[in-house]
Hints:
204 residues; Inorganic Pyrophosphatase; 10 strands; 18% helix; globular
Amino acid sequence: MSFPAPFYRWRPHPWHGLEIGEDPPKLVHAYIEITPFDTIKYEVDKSTGYMRVDRPQRSSSMPPALYGFIPRTYCGRRVGAMAPRAERGDGDPLDICVISERPINRAEVILNARVVGGLQMIDRGEADDKIIAVLQNDNYWGEARDISDLPGVITERLYHYFSTYKLIPGEDATQIFIDEQYGAEKAYKVIQSAMADYEEEYGG
């Protein structure tokens, strides 16, 4: 029996088996792990590619956008070097938040995302950038090309969420912080660095 191309006989690993996107670094694939409706932190198990429950969200704060990662990216030495106050990259795929006018309430979906900017987050000395994007061809946000095209309240919510979602009472809150908000041009460079880090770590 012949199969159409591309055809996956087995489920591809979301990080290593999916394509990065049709026009990176501007237009990328996003694999969504968490929706704005989730009170549980899910993330892909690096060994199997299946979704794993990481932890319940400790606070009442919920993700203000779709949250996942860009396949075939890796936050290694190049990504770490772009964050002056980081010692290294965090060793994970590059995180991405995707804004959509219509609610998307399912995780484990792949979507096309147009990159508009990012947040340079430092988590205990590691660069943990959050790329910000809009859903390609979104009826409301689809024309956005830079973070300056978004209302300030959207980036404020993302900033607040990532500044607080790991906070634990009694622990040092200064170890996790947002060092910078940046626009599309720097976001492209971060993605290109993460692509190069992936090539170095895992090969083609």
